[in-house]
Amino acid sequence: MTKKALTVLLALAFGALALLVASCGSSSSQSAQKGGTLKVLDTAGGVDSLDPGYWYYQTDYQELGDTTQRWLYGWKPRETKPTPDLAEALPEVSNGDRTYTVKIKPGIKYSPPLQNRTVKAADVKYALERCFLPQVGNGYANVYYGDIEGVKAYQDGKAKDISGIETPDDTTLVINTTKPVGVLATGGALGMPCSIPVPKDYAQKYDEGKQSTYGEHQVFTGPYMIENDGKGKITGYKTGRKLTLVRNPSWDAKTDFKPANFDRIEIKGGNDATVAARQTLTGRDLLSGDYAAPPTPVLKQALSSRKDQIEVESSGGNRYISLNTTVKPLDNVNVRRAISAVIDRTALRQTRGGPTLGTPATHFLPIGIAGFEDAGGEKGPGFDFSSKPTANVPLAMDYMKKAGYKSGKYDGPPILTIADNESPAKETAQAFQSQVAKIGLKLQYREVPHATMLSKFCQVPKSNTAICPNLGWGADFFSAQSFIDPLFSGKNIVQSGNVNSAEVNDPALNRKIDKAKQITDPKAAAKAWGDLDKQITNQAYFIPWLWDNNVGLRSKNAVGVSSLFNSGSWDYAFSGLK
Amino acid sequence: MAGTELGFGPGAEIAARSPLELFWRRLRDDRVALAGAAFIVLLVLAAVLAPLLVKLVGTTGPNVQNPSELDSFGTPTGPSGAHPFGVDQLGRDLFARVLYGARVSLEVAIIATALSVAIGVVTGMIAGYFRGLVDTGLSRLVDVLLAFPILLLGIGLASACSLGNGCAGGLIKPGLSVVIFVIAFVNWTYIYRIIRGQVLSLREKEFVDAARSLGASDRRILFREILPNLVAPIIVYSTLVIPQNVLFEAALSFLGVGVQPPNASWGAMLADATQIFDSAWWYMVFPGTALLLTVLAFNLLGDGLHDALNPRAGKWSPRGK
């Protein structure tokens, strides 16, 4: 993976993190009827971009990805394996795990003004290519598609297309890679929005210039489209204010696995979180939108009086405290273990709203990710410093003694700690601050805005930030690689946008990660990533403390179905009204 | 100073009263001002004796987190025997935090007021006494400072100095010193204007002329002749500017650029309380009431002092309204 790609991934993952929301629980698939208008109240900014090449965060997937477009591989709400959508079947793997062939369903049409044009393999090829264009701003192309033949030449401007992606006919897509790529073999990496077809002859004019404007002129393949004038100009979107989806006349229900019950989806932005959550619970036709959990008071009330209107689902993400291994005294593994032992994970979780919000973490990979069970499941790999949800002060002091602090307490200068200044993150950080005081850790503690925390401190090695208590990570397509490779491989340390905030650079670990990435057998891959998880947990580079839940809300007359793929948030294409 | 040399002899019924005596007699009759003063004395005592009071009441310290006082959702519990003011969302005792918050408020208010008064008096005297270019220069500078949106300036300075090792070579460090600096920097201008005006008229008085004709130096005239005549406005102004500074500190902390956690500050507590007000009213009510009463007490005392020291002058406010 190139540095640039890493940076992008980083940004991406944090975005996903920020949106982490979701849940546990089962889908409440009572009788959803066809028809009706779904209303959604957003509180954060809503979708980040209209461009499918950009989509990477929970809200992008929830409000546009699931509803308006068809991907090469889609995700049924309750499944962790991709379902062929535009594709006929999973990729055929050949040539020593280096060639992946995908057959595409014939006869799928675009929304107006291209209602007469069918989706061709070349459209997917162009979609993948444009994800590498800087003006599209994609966050993961290099991570997952970087090993495709000819990518480098294309990125350097030496080739007009990516030579490793071939389209022998209109329904066949062939991808050749320079080495085996596990995430292509499973279809997971092709179940990302970069696989949404983009007709080159129509889109290319919008992809020129500093920033692509294809998003505002795009053509849709999914059950819905953003309201438009029928000539390729979108009218149903105002940044952060409104997003209106209507039925796509070109969509053929017979070829799709989504029920798409609603006739219309109206999303209104800029609402107060408490008001939006209350209205969703007490109103009609509403499902929650771009927030991962309602404010605690609303959640508390709802859990006592409207329990059936709440859906709690594991989000497939985690929250962790990062310890910079290049800053004293955190360069000492026993100090890091001491911190892990002295942390009260249950008390940290209380700052976010208690047990509804997740499970205390005993290792890095979260629930639902392949490799989670291999690393020990909920019980964890059995290290004494990470296996208890509450604090173990004597053990922590033992580790401090092992690290050379005779009294069991730290006696050095204060340690630079940068926290988020928004609730509930700042409460978490302040709880952390008082917990580590038990082993004498004095913090030079600062609270700054979330963006500053990342862009000036936690992701910038030069800032010498020692501790970042408010970080987290979300998964892509249930892949353990998306957790471990960017965060722990020394190859991925960059000067800005650095997600390897512990600055781990262990050559043996780097080699092991590279090897795991090439495993195409899912079982063997899960085992390899699980082993890696044990190893990094033992080194206590990061202290994971919560496997997150997403909390979805619905009105009494709405039937919500939550999507495991998308961090447990509602899948509007599967939800409906009673 | 009491007594007289005018020869009425001991036991005389008519005695001249010294200015201090007059001042005290007038103030004594002003019950409202006295109530303000009493509250301030209590507040100062409470702040100084905070650790003792916390022990007496039997609650935990201001930074001790008691997760057991939170319900399973992490929302705080209200006033009880163990925690008379309830706890905050980290389970910290609010009684202790309100008391320690008084320490911060008074510390900031008094130091910042002393600083701004010192700067304002010195610059005001210089400008008023020397007039000319010095006066023009200083007065334009003050005009510029007064034209700044104060809170924005405060936020800007505070956030610029809140990172790393602070500004001005580490002199202004994140936390309290930033707040104090910002307040002093902004507030000296008001006293500057008042002092300058007073000096402009005082310097034309006969006693100054007399001193000058006796060959007194400018320094002597400024500090020995003029300054004693400025004591009354300085006292009154200081008392009236303290509540402003208390509020300003609260505002900066409310906005997150003031006192750094985990230290208690009324402003920061109010900011945190707004988010859970509908489920934890006590979190806002107690620090809010403390802030209200403190500001009110200082204002009442200031008004009383003003009336007592300067009975003929009309009311004035330090912001020149």
| Secondary structural class of chain A | alpha+beta
What Rg of chain A is obtained from the alpha carbons, in whole angstroms? 23 Å
Q: Biggest interface, which chains? A: A-B, 32 and 24 residues
Low-confidence runs of chain B: 314-321
Oligomeric form: heterodimer
Mean pLDDT of chain B: 84
Report helical residue fraction of chain A: 25-40%
Low-pLDDT stretches of chain A: 1-29
Q: Mind telling me the C-alpha Rg of chain B?
A: 24 Å
Beta content of chain B comes to under 5%
Q: Could you say which overall geometry of chain A the principal axes of the C-alpha atoms support?
A: globular
- Number of β-strand runs of chain A: 20
Number of helices of chain A: 18
**Beta fraction of the residues of chain A?**
15-25%
Q: Name the structural class of chain B.
A: mainly alpha
Number of helices of chain B: 12
Describe this structure in words.
The complex is a heterodimer of chains A (578) and B (321). Chain A is of the alpha+beta class and 578 residues long. Chain A has helices at residues 3-19, 58-68, 121-130, 141-145, 151-155, 182-185, 200-203, 214-217, 273-282, 296-305, 333-342, 345-350, 393-402, 425-436, 450-458, 481-488, 507-517, 522-539, and strands at residues 37-41, 73-74, 83-84, 92-94, 99-103, 165-169, 172-176, 224-226, 237-238, 242-247, 264-268, 286-288, 310-323, 358-360, 415-420, 443-448, 467-474, 542-553, 558-559, 576-577. Chain A is globular. Chain B has 321 residues and is an all-alpha fold. Chain B is built from twelve helices and no strands. Chain B has helices spanning 19-29, 31-48, 50-57, 94-130, 132-147, 150-161, 176-202, 206-213, 218-226, 231-254, 266-275, 281-309. In chain B, helix 4 packs parallel to helix 12.
